[in-house]
Write a structure and sequence with these properties.
The complex is a heterotrimer.
Chain A: H1 2-13, H2 21-37, H3 41-62, H4 66-73, H5 76-82, H6 87-116, H7 123-148, H8 155-163, H9 168-182, H10 188-217
Chain B: H1 9-40, H2 55-82, H3 85-117, H4 125-146, H5 150-182, H6 198-241
Helix pairs in contact in B: 1-6, 2-3, 2-5, 2-6, 3-4, 3-6, 4-5
Chain C: E1 2-13, E2 16-27, E3 31-35, H1 42-49, E4 57-61, E5 67-70, H2 82-92, H3 99-104, H4 120-134, E6 138-142, H5 150-165, E7 169-173, E8 184-187
Parallel strand pairs in C: 3-7, 3-8, 5-6, 6-7
Antiparallel strand pairs in C: 1-2, 1-4
The chains are: A mainly alpha, B mainly alpha, C alpha/beta.
Chain lengths: ~220, ~240, ~210
């Protein structure tokens, strides 16, 4: 299991692995938004939590189709399924690797990019907390979408269509947490809901993903 | 005799052959009577005006939009557990109807909302969750269309309908929380059933029944088409084998 | 002693039965070569045996965790080195020592090279080394000699012989002569699935619709 994690991380940072692509995309989103809505600090500050969350979500989406497609093409997915490791575990490790290479950099970068968007002072810490709690769910749900579309030749667009509706609850509670935190309101409810969704997703969705992979390899 | 016998495609075709005309007939009668009653023989409500009549389409469509997904979850479960092909095909046949019902609910809602609230669209939790439900329908249909092997497609969409159902409900509650959080106290109540007078209620009931039979008729016709398409495929495969 | 035995097996591809009534057994120290024209169902059969897809009918019996499967492609990661590729599979199968495998497949001089810089024959040797590190006695190989020259085919045959001599067994689907003269050959053509009218098996997938 750890070997699989190490392998996926190594593959991500080697040439052509696509590490950092999500982060660059995130920066581009953050850069483009002020061009669209105007440079006024007040407006930007108001929409910053939402923009950062939507940006993180899209950046996460960008690298999803690599999770299984590459292993499927070179045959290692077949070999992994026949190997003496539970497929549910393989799926979870893949999601973890995706989170470490995509979600974690976003968590670290979000407060920095927040400065560009005039994110209010008090909101930075909430931004980090909300992304830290929410992005694992994004990776796990993305793995589910990738598992559903693994055998398809042009699955990329379909993957986005399938996965994005699943992101709605996480997005709502994540962005709400930052907004409430920035305004000094009670943050307990969105915090607990966000953590609850992530915990349930991480615990249960890998079973669905593994089932989908088994069906796709049949 | 068990109910599973009707899951055999041949038996299903025979039975529905007899049932279908009746279903279509009942659907036509209830829908026509309900809609005509609702539109022409109900007094205009004092505080709603003429626009209230859209509820005879809006409420049944909204009801169907949700229940069709429930039906898809149930038929998908039957397929995943008992491997009855007709069940999977019924889920496939129901999805586009569900999507259209959701769309009708959204559009009639906008038509109703415009004179009532002065806006075509409001990010009310209900409206929002219907929009999300519509997206789930689109994803489900797209997945069916994308996977070539019908068995694989049935399995994958089955799993999707289960997980999607959970997240659709979750989105509904999340949306509830989200809007309440922003516009405290400014929510627009859409629960018209609660304070509706009998004059409006009876034709509405009839329309709801009409929509249910309309859906049944459509889903039977579409499932029969799917069964025929599969039979065609089976015959072609047989020829290739010989 | 029989390691793998197959009784009345029927397999399907895309909902269509392709092989049926297939029975054979494989003893330790022996190899069985599966032959047959394209599309007869060699790959489908091997995938079924490997547990990647369910069988339509019949039984497959073998000791648990005794099979290693190798498909057309080797499952190599082109940006990882030979040692990293092999080490990964060794830890997945919890065998961990890759030195003997490197040595037997003559890969020691290449161990720090990334897999994309290997020739086709070297890649295939690495794929065989992967089989060695699994430590599994039954090898199930699908077209193992694709893209190999005569010398590499000989090396492959040597590797299989070594495996058999150590008490292993191998099931190999192939088109070309491997030079494994001691191996039994099973032609799959007679087991081609018949239509139900010709007495083929009932209840195959799409029959319900007819």
């Amino acid at each position: 299991m750890i070997a699989l994690l190490m392998r996926d991380l190594r593959l991500a940072v080697r040439a052509g692995g696509g590490f950092g692509l999500g982060l660059a995309f995130f920066l581009i989103v953050v850069t483009l938004v002020p061009f669209g809505v105007g440079p006024e600090g007040k407006i930007l500050a108001r929409i910053a939590p939402g923009i950062l969350w939507v940006g993180a979500l899209l950046a996460c989406l960008l690298s999803l189709d690599r999770i299984f497609a590459l292993d499927y093409e070179d045959g290692s997915l077949d070999l992994l399924v026949t190997a003496p490791v539970p497929l549910e575990g393989v799926v979870s490790i893949k999601a973890l690797a995706h989170w470490i290479t995509t979600g974690l950099p976003l968590v670290v970068a979000a407060p920095v990019f927040g400065i560009l968007l005039h994110l209010p002072q008090g909101a930075h810490v909430w931004m980090v907390i909300s992304l830290l709690l929410g992005t694992p769910a994004l990776s796990v749900l993305g793995t589910f979408g990738a598992a559903l579309t693994v055998g398809l030749k042009r699955g990329g667009l379909l993957l986005s269509l399938l996965v994005l509706p699943f992101y709605v609850p996480t997005l709502i509670f994540g962005a709400e947490l930052v907004r409430r935190g920035a305004e000094g309101m009670n943050t307990e409810t969105p915090l607990l809901m966000l953590a609850g969704i992530t915990a349930a997703t991480v615990a249960l969705v890998p079973f669905a993903s593994a089932a989908a992979i088994r069906v796709n390899l049949r | 005799m068990s109910i599973w016998e009707y899951a055999n495609p041949v038996k299903f075709m025979k039975t529905t052959d007899k049932i279908l005309p009746w279903t279509v007939g009942v659907a036509a009668i209830t829908l026509i009577v309900g809609l005509v009653w609702g539109y022409f023989f109900v007094p205009a409500a004092e505080n709603f005006g003429g626009s209230v009549k859209v509820i005879y389409v809006h409420v049944p469509a909204a009801m169907m939009a949700i229940n069709i997904w429930v039906m898809m979850v149930v038929t998908s479960l039957i397929w995943l557990i008992r491997r009855h092909h007709v069940s999977a095909l019924a889920a496939k046949a129901a999805a586009p109807i569900g999507a259209v019902m959701t769309l009708i609910a959204l559009i009639t809602g906008a038509v109703w909302g415009q004179p009532m609230w002065g806006t075509w669209w409001e990010w009310d939790p209900r409206l929002t969750s219907f929009l999300i439900l519509f997206l789930f329908y689109l994803g489900y249909i797209a997945l069916w269309a994308a996977v070539e092997n019908p068995d694989t497609a049935a399995d994958l969409t089955g799993v999707l309908s289960l997980v999607g159902g959970v997240f659709a409900v979750l989105s509904r509650y999340a949306a509830n929380f989200w809007n309440q959080g922003l516009h405290q106290g400014a929510t627009l109540s859409m629960d018209s059933e609660q304070h509706i007078a009998d004059v409006y209620w009876f034709p509405l009931l009839l329309c709801m029944a009409g929509f249910i039979f309309f859906f049944l008729a459509l889903v039977l016709i579409r499932t029969r088409t799917e069964v025929r398409a599969r039979r065609l495929g089976a015959i072609q495969q047989r020829e290739r084998m010989a | 002693m029989s390691m793998l035995s197959v009784e009345g097996l029927a397999v399907s591809r895309g909902g269509l039965p392709v092989l049926e009534g297939l029975s054979f057994s494989l003893d330790a120290g022996h190899a069985l070569v599966l032959r047959g024209p394209n599309g007869v169902g060699k790959t489908t059969l091997l995938r079924t045996l490997a547990g990647l897809q369910p069988a339509l009918a019949g039984t497959v019996s073998m000791p648990p965790e005794s099979m290693a499967y190798a498909a057309h492609s080797d499952g190599l990661k082109s940006t990882l080195t030979v040692r990293e590729n092999l080490g990964f599979w060794a830890s997945v199968y919890a065998t961990n020592d890759i030195e003997p495998a490197l040595k037997r497949m003559n890969l020691q001089s290449l161990e720090t090279r990334p897999a994309h810089s290997l020739s086709a024959g070297q890649k295939r040797r690495l794929g065989l080394a992967r089989l060695l590190v699994t430590g599994r006695p039954i090898w199930v190989l699908d077209e193992p000699t694709v893209s190999l020259d005569t010398a590499s085919v000989a090396l492959f045959a040597e590797a299989v012989r070594g495996h058999l001599a150590n008490g292993g067994a191998a099931l190999i689907a192939t088109h070309i002569d491997l030079g494994l003269n001691e191996a039994k050959v099973l032609d799959l053509t007679p087991f081609k699935a018949k239509t139900p009218e010709e007495g083929g098996m009932q209840g195959a997938f799409d029959e319900a619709f007819l």
